[in-house]
């Protein structure tokens, strides 16, 4: 059975799919992977790393199969909730950092000493 891969955009590229699914570690490895390994897109050989994959596409490689699907309404709501929680947390952390920096007395730098110059300083 194929593993479901929900996307939040209209499409993803084949290289993105390989990276998301941990088949490759970085996007730079996609070209070499596609040159050496068999990748089937809807049953046909595919070797273009920039090939756009849309909902409904079936990708088979490395003994695994993936079906591209649109993100469901529940998944979108959950992602939005997580983003809102993260934003509140970051705002709270930023506020605490500003408060801490305002309550800590700042250390004043000592003015640099002027060093004498000219013939009178040579003695």
From TrEMBL:
Alphabetical list of SUPFAM superfamilies matching this protein: Alpha-L RNA-binding motif
Sequence ranges of Basic residues compositional bias: 106-116
Chain intervals for the UniProt region annotation (Disordered): 96-123
Keywords of the record: RNA-binding
Pfam families hit by this protein: S4_2
Stored InterPro entries: RNA-bd_S4-rel_YaaA, S4_RNA-bd_sf
Taxonomy, superkingdom: Bacteria
UniProt cross-references to PROSITE patterns, sorted A to Z: S4 (PS50889)
Protein name stated in the entry: S4 domain-containing protein YaaA
Species name: Fructobacillus broussonetiae
GN (gene name): yaaA
């Amino acid at each position: 059975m194929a593993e479901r891969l929900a996307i939040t955009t209209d499409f993803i590229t084949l290289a993105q799919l390989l990276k998301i699914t941990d088949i490759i570690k970085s996007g730079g490895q996609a070209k070499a992977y596609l040159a050496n390994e068999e990748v089937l897109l809807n049953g046909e050989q595919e070797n273009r790393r920039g090939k756009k994959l849309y909902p409904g596409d079936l990708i088979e490689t490395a003994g695994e199969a993936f079906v591209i699907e649109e993100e469901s309404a529940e998944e979108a709501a959950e992602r939005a909730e997580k983003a809102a929680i993260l934003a509140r947390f970051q705002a709270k952390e930023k506020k605490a950092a500003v408060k801490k920096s305002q309550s800590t007395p700042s250390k004043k730098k000592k003015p640099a000493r002027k060093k004498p110059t000219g013939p009178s300083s040579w003695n």
